[in-house]
Specification:
13 helices; alpha+beta; Hemocyanin, N-terminal domain; 6 strands; Catalase HpII,  Chain A, domain 1; 6-stranded antiparallel sheet
Length: 348
């Protein structure tokens, strides 16, 4: 109930829900799936020019997925099959690879674009911003010690090198803080000194000292404050990312960008998916949404209907819901739809 209650009250989730409940939500192996930054990031150069970008890692092994039925069997037969497949393929010398493609948007384009470029629930259509191939990622070595190289690893979207910076994406801004908090809780305050996490090309000079598991020299007798007159590290402003304009009133307010939350999910369903893809999508949703309360089923089906009428109609039929009632709910505002599907609705 809670899963679908949340999604049905956040219509901006519909595109991701459609991806998740398609066969793309159950990839056959890690080697046969794409990877995406999802967030928008900033690239900048020595001239002070900056651009908004999205990362796409496209598998060179081809996309392969499991159906709902195949995934059900596999989770009982071998729940670690994807990890095992990746390790064994590398061991055989069949090194999996991905093309790195970038979408690039200028700040001027961002101010006029029809979708909020910093909204993680929206994609940038390739027709508007064609992906540019810039490199490859190849996995050619397995960990020698699982604990040291896997369990102790700490990834973070806040670890940047000069030339890359964060965007105003609100979810990314939250993750910049939360990942480090999680790492400190899981691995300790000096997790960044562990060999798997430490930078390879240079030493990080800062004023962080002491704490559990501090196994280097702790910067010796150097001062741990700034500014100081003992030759301690200093911030290099020339390495900071370029400034950008902001406007409007600062305060707590509801997000109100005029995004269309449904057009991208509708295009995915109608124009990208095959008949088989749509059959599997509807079956996967009906199988899962069928366990929720009837009122929540109606509310979520109205969201599907707003993305594409056939989409909503087929899910409603699978759940044995009244398609006319689904269409009526779809014509309401989100606020009125929530009121119409409050606890107690459709219980008779």
């Amino acid at each position: 109930d809670m899963f679908w209650d949340f999604l049905s009250l956040t219509p901006e989730s519909i595109h991701q829900v459609t991806v998740l409940f398609s066969d793309r939500g159950t990839p056959k192996t890690y080697r046969h799936m794409n990877g995406f930054s999802s967030h928008t990031y900033k690239w900048y150069n020595a001239k002070g020019e900056s651009f908004w970008v999205k990362y796409h890692f496209k598998t060179e092994q081809g996309i392969q997925n499991l159906t709902r039925q195949e995934a059900e069997v596999m989770k009982g037969k071998d729940p670690d099959h994807a990890t095992r497949d990746l390790s064994e393929s590398i061991k055989r010398g069949e090194h999996p690879s991905w093309k790195l493609e970038m979408q690039i948007m200028t700040p001027e384009q961002a101010t006029k674009y029809r979708f909020d470029p910093f909204d993680i629930t929206k994609v940038w259509p390739h027709a508007d911003f064609p992906p540019i191939v810039i490199g490859r990622l190849v996995l050619n070595k397995n960990p020698e010690n699982y604990f040291a190289e896997v369990e102790q690893s700490a990834f973070s979207p806040g670890n940047f090198v000069p030339g890359i910076a964060a965007s105003p994406d609100k979810m990314l801004q939250g993750r910049l803080f939360s990942y480090h908090d999680t790492h400190r809780h899981r691995l300790g305050p000096n997790y960044h000194l562990l060999p798997v996490n430490a930078p390879k090309a240079c030493q990080v000079d800062n004023f962080q000292r002491d704490g559990a598991m501090r196994f280097d020299g702790n910067f010796g007798g150097n001062p741990n404050y700034y500014p100081n007159s003992f030759g301690g590290p200093e911030p290099k402003l020339e390495m900071s990312d370029p400034q950008f304009d902001v406007s409007g009133k600062a305060g707590r307010q509801k997000y109100d960008h005029p995004n269309d939350d449904f057009v991208q999910a509708g295009a995915l369903y109608k124009k990208v998916m095959t008949d088989a893809d749509r059959d599997h999508l509807v079956g996967n949703i009906v199988d899962h949404l069928g366990g929720a309360q009837k009122r929540i089923q109606y509310r979520q089906c109205a969201i599907f209907h707003k993305a594409d009428e056939d989409y909503g109609r087929r899910v409603a039929a699978g759940l044995k819901l009244d398609s006319k009632e689904v269409a009526r709910l779809a014509g309401m505002s989100a606020e009125n739809r929530a009121k119409e599907t409050a606890p107690g609705a459709y219980e008779k």
